[in-house]
Amino acid sequence: MSKADQMLAILWLIKSHKRITAKQLAEKLEIHIRTVYRYIDALCASGVPIISDSGHHGGYRLLGQFNEAPLVFDLDEQKALIHAAAFALEAGYPFGEKLNQAVTKLKIYTNQEQLEQIYLHEQGLDVILPQADAAEASLLREVEVAVVQRVTLHMHYQKGYGSATAERHLDPYGLVCWKNKCYVVGHCHLRQEIRSFRVDRIRELSRTDLTFERPVDFSARQFILAGVLPDSDKPEVLVSVKITGREQALDDLCGHWFLTHALVERTKHEAHFQLQEKAIYSHLPYQLLSYGGTIQIKEPKLLIEMLMEITQNLHQHYASAQID
């Protein structure tokens, strides 16, 4: 057995006995008794509260409440879990209460030195992310349970930015958090195809008596990405997009999740992309507007015209608002 396996075996043997001696541990695992001492010292250093009782009926035992703890984490693992919990809670993780309980348990089953280090690591990392409100968190919990239990959902869904809603029956295959929004992906009974729905646009949600079978190897993540990234299996004519500007602005632009895959060439003050034409007619012009005068489009002319049209429409919109 490896060192880790032997240490875990020692832990379980101590846990399963009222008391057990180092000699008994060595005999059961067929290792030298000095190795047992080293491994027990290592377990104690990692936070396992092993008590050594001397005397004729002595031996090793675990401190009372630790008998309920199934796992042992070293300091780096504890730090990683604490930091991951901070990200999840700030992002609106729907099972935040249980996550806090788990973190509390993690702190209980550790020694004082590690506990002090955990508090230092907690203070060393802050996370600021858009949080889901209480209503959305409740919806996320319901949807997640339905995904696991394979239960069909009935929902009233708001389409676009209007107030009208549509009724849908959905077999939820999975939840995806994307760009600070949560989506449920599944089979829509109305459209008879797999669709994605923003959770924050679900106005009413209830379970039905229907159940379903999830497609084998289906990935909700891949479904979402396939809808926003170019389809390599269906090649289109690519359009050359050249943008000049300030170095920092171009760095930010080239690092964008949508554009990074399309970058062909980059110099200090110019970036050259190859993009599908549909991107120029959809979201790319609006994305570029946020950079203002820090960048300038060199080609294609179509993209320049799109930006001019958008800005002119915005100018007219706000000019008419001033008149009214």
From TrEMBL:
Residues 139-205 form the WYL domain. It comes from the Bacteria. Keywords: DNA-binding. InterPro entries: CBASS_pafABC_assoc_protein, HTH_11, WH-like_DNA-bd_sf, WH_DNA-bd_sf, WYL_dom. GO terms for molecular function: DNA binding. Pfam families: HTH_11, WYL. PANTHER family: PROTEIN PAFB, PTHR34580. This is DNA-binding transcriptional regulator YafY. It comes from Paenibacillus aceris. The lineage of its organism: Bacteria, Bacillati, Bacillota, Bacilli, Bacillales.
